[in-house]
Amino acid sequence: MNLSLIYISLIILSELGSILFFWFLAKYNKDKISLSSIMKGLLERAFICFSLLVGYPHVLTLFAALKIATRIKDESKISNDYYFIGNLVSVSLAILYTLLIEQHILLTG
């Protein structure tokens, strides 16, 4: 079996296991787990993984700052979610643009 396929399968199984774990945790605390919270967790892990894969470990500091900023009490939880997700997408795009410029423009120019 291809090693890449094994790793991808391991990641998928780990994500399913984390969803199950958080579902049990929410049930134990008599909370409800929503699809949006599952998707936010997937997005967070994808962002961290992407950042580490492209060699930007200092993005972990940015990620921690974003998490703290969204914990600040606001009268609207939606604004915190949009702030967090918007910043993750923005930083991810900036990293992608940097990679494209480094690999395809600076090296060929």
- What proportion strand? under 5%
- What are the low-pLDDT stretches, counting only 5+ consecutive residues below 50? none
> What is the percent of helical residues?
over 70%
- The total of beta strands comes to 0
The shape is: flat
Class from helix and strand fractions:
mainly alpha
Order of helices and strands: HHHH
Rg estimate, integer Å: 17 Å
Domain unit count: 2
The pLDDT mean sits at: 76
The largest sheet is: none
State the helix count: 4
Termini separation: 40 Å
Keywords: Membrane, Transmembrane, Transmembrane helix
Transmembrane segments: 6-26, 47-70, 82-101
Structure description:
The chain is mostly helical and 109 residues long. The chain folds into two domains: 1-32; 34-109, no CATH class. It is 81% helix and 0% strand. It is built from four helices and no strands. It has helices at residues 3-28, 35-53, 59-71, 77-106. α2 packs parallel to α4 (77-106). The longest helix has 30 residues, at 77-106. The radius of gyration is 17 Å and the shape is flat. The model has no long low-confidence stretch (mean pLDDT 76).
